[in-house]
Predict the structure.
Amino acid sequence: MTTVTVGLGSCGIAAGAHKTYEKIKALKEQENLAFELHKTSCVGMCYREPLVEITDETGTYLYGDINEDRAVEVIEKHINQNDPIRDYIVYTDLFDAAENDFINSQVKIVLRNCGYMDPESIADYEHRHGYTAMKKIVMDKISREDIIKTILESGLRGRGGGGFSTGMKWKFANANKSEQKYVICNADEGDPGAFMDRSVLEGDPHSVLEGMIIAAYAIEATGGVIYCRAEYPLAIKRLNIAIGQAHEKGYLGKNAFGIKGWDFDVYIKEGAGAFVCGEETALIASIEGERGMPRKRPPFPAASGLWKKPTNINNVETFANVPWIILNGAPAYAKYGTEKSKGTKVFALAGKIRRSGLVEVPMGMTIRDVIFKLGGGIKNDKRFKAVQLGGPSGGCIPEYLSDTIVDYDSVNATGAIMGSGGMVVMDETTCMVDVAKFFLDFTRKESCGKCTFCRMGTMRMLEILERITNAQGREGDIEKLEELAYQIKDNSLCGLGQTAPNPVLTTIKYFRDEYEAHIFHKKCPAKVCRPLLTYTVDQEKCTGCLVCLKNCPSKAITGERKKPHFINQELCTKCGVCFTKCKFSSIVLT
Amino acid sequence: MRITRLTTKKTENAEEDVDLRLLEPLIEKNKGKKGNLIPLLQGAQELFGFIPRPVFEKISSECGIPLGDMFGVATFYAQFRLKPVGKHIIKVCHGTACHVQNAKEITEAIEEMLKVKDGETTEDRFYTLESVACLGCCSLAPVMMIGDQTYGKLTGNEAVRIIKNIKLAEQN
């Protein structure tokens, strides 16, 4: 039977996948067509959404950029006339399609099911070996210690950013005895520019749930909480469906999986919008209904966490790895990666990159390969300048270091951090001072205010950066920024404060010349910071057409028809309207 | 810095008529539960669009949570609003991917068109303009979200056109 599957992840829906789905559904009903229509989530190819996959007796074809009109065309040609439209096919294993290498160069462990099954169907998940890992544990009577040993041997490290050994965390939580223990899934993906947890939750909620169940069994937990940000409504909806289905099957609740005396239940806690709640102690405070402010460690959550009971917290991606590791064994997982960072990592590619989307690669790939081989290089043939890794806690890695491999330690050595895996690519038109200012503005707003250095220090740093981008930079500003940065790092309690200055420090380290151009020459080399720009008229090229003069909102341009115009720099607000309106490229921007 | 929000203006429109009976099922459901404060506030905001002062007082007296604690939590999290909002909330994404692809232009164009600043509501209470950190649709940057609908690959003009059309569609 031919099947037609439409990708309905958040990114697909934003690109209009619902309309495509409805159109195909209507066509099917109107013409009584013989195919099955299914839904799935994101396969990672966000740049080609909406995606429609057709599987018939000859093979599988993935169509990209399928709006309503194209959907009609594809159904007519492929289904009715048995004639696939090659131009629209982005991936197939039958011939060399446009995006074949994007899929083929990946190793999918975490994303093994994303885009390949209906996330709202537990039958689909089980069909793809879902819940087999937990069943194996029960059938083979694998002991708690052996489960933890397997996770330890796999070398899995926390995928939320910290990179702490997952097996060790479980071991600590298991060692602390208590009547009640908790497992928490951290799904408060707050990094701007990162969306891999969202895709996993939307595309494969059951694998996260199964990972939690295994963790809970291993540490003898009695309760589970998924702390998910409220900005991800679709993820929450699908998680709720998954939890309901797992209950019906007896995978959650009293005597879960038929294990007598083991009660384990999971509920979802919606975050209320605070970046700091990604920090584990702040997250626990937030679940307890308090302001999400971090507290001093130790005691670590493994000893005293939620409601002062031993608690194990892992990130979405970490949990999604767990069933695969149990099922395939630690050596199969540890085969991928580098000496100290095993397995694969999911990256969210965004920014000035051709193929923005989700990719999963083995640790140890170079940044250059991720960006150019998988990401297809830089948009509009611009020059690659830097990549930002790790969000507001991370840093910018310049082009000349792009042969750095992606593993925790190599990335840390550059001054950035792996973080949760957001990779924002920047080209020559991105100003690094502006980027540093952007991140600092973010951390300043998100600082919980508990530590003075983080609360006040980020504000002072931001003020300096604002001055610099406002043409009022002074000698000594760079040194002052560095001094403040180290003070904030040394004197903050939690990860947010300790890493907040990283974007500034790395941009100073690698792009000091840009800071100097702003401060001493009052120029923005990337031409982003408005107060530092100067618009002038090229007297030779100007035809005197009056277009810029008429469009200038501040009446700063003077001149007569057929004679070169002038811009009065005192009146010019640097809005750039003349630059975009001029048809003869006679406005010069310096 | 989150703490500065404590000093923001007192809740406006405190006298406005609020049907407190609507709160009863919510209070019934959460009363006495551990960690119930955030779900209570989230539920209340869902009912009223924002959290008016009488709602704080009602929840406080019914559930025995000190007003100070409630206000502390409500001002800490970005989600909670203490002021009424417009019928449609325009969320312009200012995540990293959108920032490097000129999200500022989108906000500026909307500000100019609606004659409000970021975070404010139009006089007719039709639109509220907001900046948000990341909507997770980075591949479509720059992005904005109105209701459940996400609009991607925007320009300033395009965003203004979409917003105008929503109003036109409702007036007809």
Observations:
- Confidence is low (pLDDT under 50) at residues 3-12 of chain B.
